[in-house]
Automatic annotation (TrEMBL):
One of its GO terms (molecular function) is methionine-tRNA ligase activity. Its EC number is 6.1.1.10. NCBIfam families: metG. SUPFAM superfamilies: Anticodon-binding domain of a subclass of class I aminoacyl-tRNA synthetases, GroES-like, Methionyl-tRNA synthetase (MetRS), Zn-domain, NAD(P)-binding Rossmann-fold domains, Nucleotidylyl transferase. It comes from Verticillium longisporum (Verticillium dahliae var. longisporum). Belongs to the class-I aminoacyl-tRNA synthetase family. It is found in: Cytoplasm. This is methionine--tRNA ligase.
Length: 1134
């Protein structure tokens, strides 16, 4: 390239991406070998393409220089030198105009990803790599900082600790790795030993410190690229310590930190190797899955304890570069770096990035470091960043694979802590560092004059795994409404996240032996993975421990304080004399005064279920507690209370707490409630519960607690008395909706105000909140009261849609007793997520207003009561009957007929004018469509499903009444075309209205229709949306039959010990009954014999020992032992 010319670097692997650019084909110089390993461009030369070469057929994310590149070669020495110079610290310009170094701060860990370029191209495919690092140093690593390179923003985050293994360990005879046994079980990892190839003179043994997780790892273990030599450990972004070097190794010394990429061997003697194109060597071997020719040993990758590699593919890592930052550079980084260097990117050159994903982001960094000028193609509008951890284990690797495989949120993982993983698995600190990043081109903001919809779901508490009641109670219901609103053309955002502060988190962390932050990262990842499997369409799934949360909570508190709505009270609380701190109720344990249970908590007894006080109340009244309000009062207390932390007997001690004066806010709160609940048509339970609170009298409610994990009370307002206190979780939890929205709209910009367009804009925004009935009072009373008390113009809730409880097979969900299906278990059934969504929504525990005497065609077996019952039988019936035989049959029959008889093309249905039958059919569909829209707007989702199935049933009736078959096609082709055309357009309507409930099925229907999967829900059915001549897709089954035998199998598997206990009880009762009959029979026999003996001898008494024998038999524990009835579980739906 000449000075002043532009080099455009592209990173993508999807054909549609390239077609948008008008790049239809590609050329390859004659004699060039097939580019079967194009995914790894480290150390190779790109041929001089004139067009772009999308290797989507290979499935490899890739990169290629685009433009009049001359393709000059770069020597290995020069390439290595440039790489070292680059990794050692290229320069950038930060937002202050000062220059800084790239990646030289030992703590500076930073990741981000994006999905759309400034050219408004399609999103970057999810299989791309995502990773980057922070630029420059932060003066305060506890705060997020924004830096800028041209028009691209980078958000910095605090680092994670890096564990560097000790090389002074006994030398292993075999290596150990997490291997997959086959494509069918690609998400199941097993820790196994394996043989390494014989050690050679040029070999280096590396004890692995960390390894990046790449999407090609997923493609490999899943079998996407053909058969693999299982069992196999993948991973090719490896960093570790050289613990053994061969006698002829010259590039690396023992003890040095080094890295290995995707390739581990080539002949180094062929033309390609001598031209620095080792990747094209016909004998090249990959880091994993390759067979070493001399020994037959299969190479194993970086999900292992060690790797053995030829020195040529081992690179020293500069001391200033953290291992987990360097690892992804060994694949994704070099994929971008190689074409930049080979095409002379540097001073005087312009570089444009098309599609800034993981590779594209590296392209931006490297091009800047090389001194090139960036074109506007690299501009990005918005970035979001967070960091998480999950345990390193088979389950952790499964989670990582799933996250990389398919996600609306872009993932980058780098696994660390390998020494513990392979040598001391009992170490609870062993982790996979999960780098989860999300980006959007521009946040969705309200549009003046439109129906702007803000949807929130109750923030799930992260101290446990959610069960199906949690899923349907809030997040799934909210997702349905958000999808419906978007399809209606409304500017809509769906906000959710994990609620992480509070006593329950601290106690759970104590139980698991970790700090609260670690616990929350773990369960946040668990929740997010579950919700992604259910295809929930959050615009952001955030967290509450953020600076945005602290800022907004404290700001609301300050305004409440200034306006006189906060009061201070002295309370008596348990105080631990050993560690000198006040104890929250849950940190006190002891004997329940009501039932005698010895491990009762200070807030409630787990055995009898009664509410308790941690200390015996004083006889005099008037002593306030920090949680005094109109809620249920304790009925008992703890006898012999003890501190949960150290077992010490707590003292009674006076302390101060802050209270929100609900009494002073009563009048404006009641006025607002009456207006909002009527206009928004709140659910019955939401109105009833709120009114009950009001009727009992609103009293001041405690909003502070003696905890460490929470939003701190601002001491500049309250003084030092509150230095060790935080806000009560239910004061700040609902404010989490606001702070998570700010994370979405403003990112790391703490001064940003875009969030106020949603939350301080009541004239333009309607807020819909979805939750379980146990959370109503906080959303209908505490949060609105806090908003009113600030005297600011907040967006307050328009509609609360509260669900009742979902029960399980006649009982309650209970994780401790193994009863019920939990979010992380649904995948084990093999039932698709859409079928789960359908069933849960058909059983949504809502108070129904539907008239059962209506004329609907489809009648679902849905209870009319408030609480709902999960039944395996109904899950199977819903799939096999309602979905397969109704919806699936209609779609399959029409599209398959068009495929077989009409050349997979929409016929010209315009030749036949609609007769009275067809006109009436259209009218009936529109009646059901109108009911569907009304049901959805009223959040009556069960009735919405009825409307969908009624429209589908009308479609089946259309085919049946008109006898769609070969005879109709032959004898009345125009009428047949009209039937097919109308049916296809009806299927298109179904695809749109089904999308809120079953998004994957909806997309499949659109694909079979041959149209873009863009759901649109009109006021009236458009009967010609699918035009004549439209090519259809391939007809495929939407649903599969579930065998009836699965019902008992699942019932047993997900009832766990409780089901077995019930069966044992039933068997014991049957045995006792049988034994009682036998005893009665024997008793009668003995009496007869005694009577005979008495008659013979004149004696009237029965034989001695009979009664005592009976008593002994009756007292036999083997006969009499019957366990108690199942205790009622205290499990909520949200």
């Amino acid at each position: 390239m000449q000075r002043g010319q532009s080099l455009v670097f592209a990173a993508a692997d999807e054909p549609n991406f390239w077609s948008e650019l008008g790049c239809a084909g590609w050329s390859r110089p004659l004699g060039t070998p097939p580019l079967t390993t194009m995914g790894h461009l480290s150390g190779i030369m790109l041929p001089p393409f004139l067009d772009v070469c999308p290797f989507s057929a290979l499935g490899w994310p890739w990169a290629v220089a685009w433009g009049p590149a001359k393709g000059g070669r770069v020597s290995r020495k020069r390439l290595r030198g440039a790489r070292s110079q680059l990794l050692g610290g290229g320069s950038v310009v930060d937002e202050r105009g000062t220059r800084g170094k790239i990646g030289i701060e030992p703590w500076s860990l930073k990741y981000w990803a994006t999905c759309r370029s400034a050219l408004d191209l399609p999103p970057v495919p999810p299989s791309l790599f995502f990773f980057s690092f922070e630029i420059g140093a932060l003066s305060n690593p506890n705060h997020l900082t924004r830096l800028a390179i041209d028009q691209t923003s980078y958000c910095a985050v605090p680092p994670l600790p890096i564990h560097i293994p000790d090389a002074n360990m006994p030398y292993p005879e075999k290596f150990t790795g997490f291997q997959v046994k086959g494509a069918d079980t690609w998400q199941e990892f097993h820790k196994q030993e394996f043989d390494a190839k014989p050690f050679g003179d040029y070999d280096i043994d590396i004890k692995i410190e960390c390894c990046g997780v790449c999407s090609s790892d997923v493609h490999t273990v899943r079998g996407d690229w053909g058969a693999q030599p299982y069992p196999l450990a993948v991973g090719h972004e490896i960093v570790g310590k050289a613990i053994k070097v061969g006698s002829k190794v010259t590039t690396v010394k023992e003890g040095q930190r080094v890295g290995v990429g995707a390739q581990s061997w080539a002949c180094l003697d062929c033309k390609q190797c001598k031209n620095d194109n080792e990747t094209y060597c016909k004998d090249q071997l990959d880091t994993y899955g390759a067979t070493w020719p001399d020994s037959g040993v299969v190479s194993q990758g970086g999900y292992s304890s060690h790797v053995r590699t030829h020195q040529h593919w081992v690179f020293p890592i500069p001391d200033g570069l953290p291992s987990e930052v360097a690892a992804p550079m060994l694949c994704a980084g070099l994929t971008a770096y190689s074409p930049l260097v080979r095409n002379g990117a540097g001073p005087g050159k312009k570089v444009g990035i098309v599609g800034i994903g993981g590779i594209g982001h590296f392209g931006v960094l490297f091009a800047k470091a090389l001194g090139a000028e960036m074109l506007d193609l690299a501009a990005e509008k918005k970035l979001f960043t967070w960091v998480e951890k999950i345990p390193i284990s088979a389950e952790g690797l499964k989670t990582a694979m799933q996250g990389v495989e398919a996600s609306k949120v872009r993932y980058r993982y780098c696994m660390t802590g390998y020494e513990e993983a392979f040598e001391s698995l009992s170490n609870p600190s062993t982790t996979i560092t999960t780098l989860a990043v999300m980006a959007t081109a521009e946040p969705i903001l309200p549009v003046k004059g439109k129906n702007n919809v803000l949807v929130t779901s109750a923030l799930p508490y992260v101290n446990n795994t959610p069960h199906l009641g949690n899923v349907i109670g809030s997040v799934l219901s909210a997702d349905v409404f958000a999808r419906f609103s978007r399809a209606r053309g409304n500017p809509t955002i769906f906000i959710c996240g994990s609620d992480e502060y509070g006593t329950a988190t601290e106690t759970k962390a104590l139980e698991e032996g970790v700090d609260p932050e670690t616990l929350c990262r773990k369960y946040h990842a668990v929740h997010k993975g579950i919700y992604e499997w259910f295809n929930l369409s959050f615009d952001i799934f955030g967290r509450t421990p953020t600076e945005q949360q602290t800022e907004i909570v404290q700001d609301i508190f300050r305004k409440l304080w200034q306006n006189g709505y906060i009061e201070e009270r002295e309370t008596t609380q348990p105080f631990c004399p050993v560690h000198h701190s006040f104890l929250a109720d849950r940190f006190v344990e002891g004997e329940c005064s009501l039932c005698g249970y010895n491990d009762a908590r200070g807030d409630q007894c787990d055995k009898c279920g009664n509410l308790l006080d941690p200390l015996e109340p004083e006889p005099e009244a008037g002593n306030a507690k920090p949680d005094d309000d109109i809620a249920a009062k304790a009925t008992g207390w703890l006898i012999n209370p003890r501190c949960k932390l150290d077992g010490a007997k707590p003292d009674k001690k006076q302390t101060k707490h802050l209270f929100l004066r609900l009494d002073a806010l009563k009048e404006p709160l009641i006025d607002w409630f009456k207006k909002a609940s009527t206009e928004g048509a709140w659910s019955t339970s939401a109105q009833t519960i709120t009114q009950a609170w009001i009727d009992k009298g609103l009293k001041p409610r405690g909003i502070t607690r003696d905890l460490k994990w929470g939003v701190p009370v601002p001491r500049d307002v309250t003084g030092e008395d509150y230095a060790a206190k935080v806000f009560y979780v239910w004061f700040d939890a609902c404010i989490g909706y606001v702070s998570i929205t700010k994370n979405y709209t403003d990112g790391a910009d703490l001064a940003g105000k875009k969030w106020e367009q949603w939350w301080k804009n009541p004239d333009e925004v309607k807020l819909y909140q979805f939750l379980g009935k146990d959370n109503v009072q906080f959303h209908s009373t505490v949060f609105p009261a806090s908003q009113l008390g600030t005297n600011e113009n907040w967006t307050k809730v328009h509609k609360i849609s509260a669900t009742e409880y979902l029960n399980y097979e006649g009982g309650k969900f209970s994780k401790s007793r193994g009863v019920g299906v939990f979010g992380n278990q649904v995948q084990e059934t093999g039932v698709p997520s859409d079928v789960w969504r359908y069933y849960l929504l058909s059983r949504r525990p809502e108070v129904r207003s539907h008239d059962p005497s209506d004329n609907m065609i489809v009648v679902l077996t849905i209870s009319q009561t408030s609480d709902s019952e999960f039944m395996w039988q109904e899950l199977v019936d819903g799939n096999n009957n309602e979905l397969l035989k109704n919806l699936g049959n209609f779609c399959q029959r029409v599209i398959k007929f068009a495929q077989a008889k009409l050349d997979t093309t929409v016929p010209d249905y315009t030749k036949f004018s609609l007769n009275d039958y067809l006109k009436n059919h259209v009218k009936e569909v529109n009646v059901n469509l109108k009911e569907y829209i009304a049901n959805m707007e009223g959040t009556k989702f069960r009735d919405g499903l009825r409307s969908i199935l009624s429209i589908s049933a009308l479609g089946n009736k259309l085919l049946q009444d008109n006898k769609l078959d070969n005879k109709l096609l032959t004898e009345e082709p125009d009428r047949c075309a009209a039937i097919i055309g109308l049916a296809l357009n009806q299927i298109a309507l179904i695809a749109s209205i089904l999308n809120p409930y079953m998004p994957v099925t909806s997309k499949a229907i659109f694909e079979q229709l041959g149209v873009e999967p863009t759901p649109t829900i009109p006021d009236e059915w458009v009967t010609d949306a699918i035009k004549p001549g439209q090519k259809l897709g391939e007809a495929k089954h939407l649903f599969s039959q579930i065998p009836a035998s699965k019902i008992e199998e699942w019932r047993e598997a997900f009832g766990g010990e409780e089901v077995r206990k019930q069966k044992e009880e039933a068997a014991a009762k049957a045995a006792a009954k049988k034994a009682a009959k036998e005893r009665e029979k024997e008793k009668k026999r003995l009496k007869k014999e005694a009577a005979k003996a008495a008659a013979a001898s004149g004696a009237e008494a029965a034989p001695a020992g009979v009664e005592s024998g009976e008593k002994k038999s009756e007292a036999d524990p083997a006969i009499e032992a019957v366990t108690e009835a199942i205790a009622k579980a205290d499990v909520h739906t949200s």
